[in-house]
Every structure is written in C-alpha cells, then in structure tokens.
Amino acid sequence: MKLAYYPGCTAHGSAVEIDVATRKVAQTLGVELKEVEDWNCCGGGFLDERDPVGHAAINLRNLSKVEKMGLEKMVTPCSVCLHSHRLAVHKYEEDPVLKEEVDKRTQGTTVQYSGKANAEHIVWVLLRDVGLEKIKAAVKKPLVGLKVATYYGCQMLRPGEVMGFEDPHSPHSLADLVAAVGATPVTFPAMTYCCGFPLMGSNEKGGLRLAYNIMKGARDAGADLLIHPCSLCHLQLDVTQVKVRDMFSLDWTMPAIYATQLLALAFGFSPEEVQLGRNAAEVLRQKGLI
C-alpha cells in the first residue's frame, strides 16, 4: 500500500519522535509512506480564521501535489493538519463564493486541485486500510498489564460531518489500537476535550488548566499513561507537562505518548528507537515491559 505522507511542521521539528515512530509502524505493516515534496504548513488553528481563502489555497496546494503523485490519500499523524486540510476541502466544495476566490488566488500558479485527493489520519489508515488482525499479527511484545488512557482531543473528531470517521461523541479508534497490542484501554470523561494548546499564546494559565484536566482525568481513571493522536497535543501534554506540574504543585506525572509510539513498542522496537520520553519509559520499566 502506497500513500502520500504529510508529517506536518511539528513532526519535523520539536516532536520528531512522532515522525520516527509513524514511519516504523508503517514500514512494519507494509505501508509505503511517500512524503509530499515541497509541502507547506497547513496554517491550522490561526490562518483559517484570519484569511479563509488563503488557508484553503495553501491546503489545496498540498493536495494538488498529492494528485500529481498519482495518489488520492494523504496520511498525516497530526490532528490539526488533518482538520485543516479536510476543512479546506469541505469549504471549497460547499462554499461557491470561497471557491471562486480561491480559484482567483491560485490562478497562474501550479495549484490545480481536481477534488480527488483528501487527508486522512494515520489512525484511520491503520484501522480501515491495514486492519486490526494485521496489527495484532505484528505484535512481538504484548503490553499486557499496561493501562492506557485514550485521549482523542478535539481536532480529529469534530466537526463530524467533515471528519467523518467515527462518532465524535463516542470514539473508540484509539481504544481498538490499544487493545490490539495487548494493553488495557482506559476511557475517561475528558478524552475528547481540548488540550489547551491553542490558548498558550494568549492565555497560558487557561491552556495549562485544560491540560491539567486531561492529565488528572486519565490519572483518576487509573491509567498508567495516555496516548494521543496529535502533534500539538504532544507538545501540550508531554513537553509542556513540566509547566502543568509546577502550576498545580503536582507530585505525580501522567506520561503522554503518541499512538504509533505505543504500537512500535509492541512491534518490538526499543524505547530509544522510538525516542520515548523518560517518564513513559519508567512506567514501562516498572511494569516489566522493557
């Protein structure tokens, strides 16, 4: 299976472990990821509000490149990038005024989007195109005894008519993956809440409080660690967790790892090979899983 691959800015920068683990999981499962050449930032989370036409144009530029590759599916590990591209396509198809403006802005450029290509999340591809049975067959080190909170965030799920993969009010895709590798999925009320990352530039305390709600919700549900499907959630719940701990004077941690890092560990890759964080590695060590 050959798919166009859009890592997004964060997975090529401050959260490169997401890119590393995603490529290892894909290779293990026989999925060829062909990175889109000269891709641009999706502008998700800010440009779509300030300049909807520009936002649609730059996302359709990426998808037009996918079509030139002879492909129609562009997979990304980032929920914000997923949301941004799918929202751009939806608006382009449903809003004739915006479509006319986008066509004017891209006239004379190399952007030629026919409507065939769209973005999908790597979690969707793993479940729908690869399948749970193949994933289970690739497991070499079942993560038995590990309780994993499944945090979906908001961008991969909503709006449901644009995302279209699962019920945004009762998702289970991550729980299915967790169970497939032998671990125990843990659901909790805040699993579809925003992580607070979009607030960090304007209201840092508010953003950190939202992150705390996720962490505490997972802890109260009895989880050992949590997994998520988003590069920006990764920054908020992993890298920024130190700030959350300081703000709330916490004496505990809730390790947050990307979904494909968990799968890669079960497939036999070492914590070092998937660049697992120190706190997550310590949890696995205490469980006797590494």
Automatic annotation (TrEMBL):
<dbReference type="Pfam" id="PF02754">
    <property type="entry name" value="CCG"/>
</dbReference>
<dbReference type="InterPro" id="IPR051278">
    <property type="entry name" value="HdrB/HdrD_reductase"/>
</dbReference>
<dbReference type="GO" id="GO:0016491">
    <property type="term" value="F:oxidoreductase activity"/>
</dbReference>
<protein>
    <submittedName>
        <fullName>Disulfide reductase</fullName>
    </submittedName>
</protein>
<feature type="domain" description="Cysteine-rich">
    <location>
        <begin position="4"/>
        <end position="83"/>
    </location>
</feature>
<feature type="domain" description="Cysteine-rich">
    <location>
        <begin position="148"/>
        <end position="238"/>
    </location>
</feature>
<keyword id="KW-0560">Oxidoreductase</keyword>
<dbReference type="InterPro" id="IPR004017">
    <property type="entry name" value="Cys_rich_dom"/>
</dbReference>
